[in-house]
Amino acid sequence: MTATPGLPPAAAAPAAAPDLFRAVFRRHAAGVAVVTARGDTGPVGFTATSLTSVSAEPPLLSFGIRTGSSSWAVVSGAGHVGVHILGEHQQDLAATFARSGADRFGAPTAWREGPEGVPVLDGVLAWLVCRVHARVPAGDHRLVVAEVVGGDPAGTGRPLLYHQGRFTALRD
């Protein structure tokens, strides 16, 4: 292995700190989703930019959730979750589900009870209902792996993105 001029050898590189990690991932554009679940006292949900396709057969996806989040108590025991792909017109909805202490399911959020009792948001580009398959410890988060059991890809529009700490849209 040869060293790149101007960069220290990998062995001499400092350990990655949370600030470095965050700075690098601010440069990574990610699609924006909202994950929902039904709780005993009502629906919960949060904005996720960690949504990943895992497998087509069986259809599996994953997302991360911080164990200190207000939604974790419900998601930690939920059998099913909803996953919603947001459109560029839904920046306010993404911000609502990202904000701590917000009334996420109050007006103007439009939603209905979907399959398996999962809250389904109206007006999204696409949504899925998934059976939770596993919750894997990952630092201060859990990586949730879930199998798709239903959904609707028929929404219209372009996806909402998250980049450099803000919601944004694709450019042509």
UniProtKB/TrEMBL annotation:
Recorded GO MF terms: oxidoreductase activity
Keyword Oxidoreductase: yes
Domain Flavin reductase like, chain residue ranges per copy: 25-169
Keywords assigned: Oxidoreductase
Family matches, as InterPro entries: Flavin_Rdtase-like_dom, NADH-dep_flavin_reductase, Split_barrel_FMN-bd
Uppermost EC category: oxidoreductase
SMART domains xref list: Flavin_Reduct
Listed EC numbers: 1.-.-.-
Protein name: Flavin reductase family protein
